[in-house]
Design brief:
- The structure is a single chain.
- The protein is mainly β.
- Helix content is 12%, strand content 42%.
- The chain folds into four domains: 103 residues, Thrombin, subunit H; 102 residues; 74 residues, no CATH class; 64 residues, Phage tail proteins - 2 layer sandwich fold (2-Layer Sandwich), CATH 3.30.1920.
- The protein has a 15-stranded mixed sheet that branches. A three-stranded mixed sheet has the order 11-14-13.
- A hairpin with a 5-residue loop joins strand 8 and strand 9.
- Helix 1 packs antiparallel against helix 2.
- It is globular and about 70 Å long.
């Protein structure tokens, strides 16, 4: 009978699967386990076990964490973890232990580059942001990859297009796929149309690249969200708070310089007249080097995006605590929109990272949030 750590409300178990997704072993016992999952990036899992627990470690074995809580069981984080490091240690007590480091399935996006020439349709695109992300994945690790050996369709599919994001123009030849996806997602967020992405595990044996428009999770913001949640120091569920108003890196006027020389160089500008007129010293100029871009729309997009990055920033960040009135897995999850309260103000925030540690039968959960 399988079992794992049993807290008052949760049970966590870990299975080892082959790289192809076939169950091999149930990990028991485990000395401790810790993992973190961020948005739009891959997570990191660390586990320490007695070396006798399992010995046949190989790269890219899958680890699946199942978490039973509040009457439901699910694959934790909607992901599997691929083994990337094994360290064997002999403790002073004489016990031999093995430490395993694994990355969530989104790390697969870091294993490929955009292997197409500049100017080609696979490295120079204008499309809805979410569909562009999917096209890049299909063309570099899916069924549209033109180079033999690059197609992982047997193991990872790509969600159907939904055209839910803002229109984006981008050139990205010979760059790491994950870096390109993150840049596109960051550009859309700065335009107020965030796109999130992940490689999820609908089951232990399947992987799928998915995108999410506006939110990765659910809207629990106060007062109009579903079952609103407010995190506040007065409720004991928000700590390590920082509220910042920052003009230090403000930009109000941008010159983006594309390909060409002197008078023949592509130059596009973007400015914010409201912020410029707010101070006698309000015109703060910067140059955006876009010499790799030959498309005028792409250069203009670089100017607009760079201007957005230069807006003054008023942000609230903090660490939320798992409490009886705001339980991880029951009330909130990674990517949810919630409300944070501090200094008599309320802010809509996104839960952008979770951190879980299990040791000696105790599960400790923290999460980071940032205002939007």
């Amino acid at each position: 009978m399988e079992w794992g750590w049993r807290m008052s409300e949760t049970t966590t178990s870990v299975w080892v699967l082959s790289a192809q997704g076939v169950r091999m072993a149930f990990l028991d016992p485990i000395r401790w386990m810790s993992y973190a999952l961020p948005l739009n990036d891959f997570g990191i899992l660390s586990i320490e076990i007695p070396s006798s627990t399992f010995t046949n470690w190989k790269r890219d074995l899958r680890l699946v964490i199942t978490r039973s809580a509040f009457g439901t069981q699910s694959i934790e984080g909607e992901t599997v973890w691929l083994v990337r490091r094994i360290v064997k240690k002999l403790l002073t007590s004489g016990e031999q232990v093995t430490q395993i480091t694994a990355y969530s399935a989104a790390e697969l996006l870091r294993r490929r580059i955009v292997a197409y020439a500049a100017g080609s349709s696979k490295a120079d695109k204008t499309d809805k942001a979410d569909d562009m992300l999917k096209a890049i994945v299909r063309e570099n690790m899916g069924n549209l990859a033109t180079i033999v050996g690059r197609d992982w369709t047997s193991y990872m599919t790509v969600q159907a297009n939904t055209a839910a994001g803002a229109s984006v123009t981008k050139q990205f030849s010979r760059r790491v796929v994950l870096d390109v996806l993150q840049e596109i997602a960051q550009d859309t967020a700065q335009q107020g149309n965030p796109i999130y992405f992940d490689v999820i595990a609908p089951s232990e044996t399947t992987l799928e690249f998915r995108t999410y428009a506006t939110l990765r999770g659910m809207d629990h913001s106060f007062p109009h969200g579903i079952q609103p949640i407010v995190f506040s120091p007065k409720f004991g569920n928000l700590t390590d708070i920082r509220l910042s108003t920052d003009w230090a890196d403000e930009i109000t006027y941008v010159y983006a310089l594309g390909q060409g020389v002197e008078d023949n160089r592509i130059v596009k500008v973007a400015g914010d007249s409201t912020r410029i007129s707010a101070s006698p010293f309000g015109r703060i100029e910067r140059v955006r080097d876009a010499r790799n871009l030959s498309n005028e729309d792409s250069v203009q997009s670089e100017a607009d995006t760079y201007l957005e990055t230069g807006k003054p920033k008023r942000t609230l960040s903090g660490i939320i605590m798992d409490t009886s009135s705001a339980r991880y897995g029951l009330h909130w999850r990674l990517g949810d929109k919630v409300t944070a309260e501090f200094d008599n103000e309320q802010f809509d925030c996104i839960i952008n990272q979770i951190q879980v540690r299990i040791e000696d039968g105790t599960e400790t959960i923290e999460a980071r949030l940032t205002s939007i």
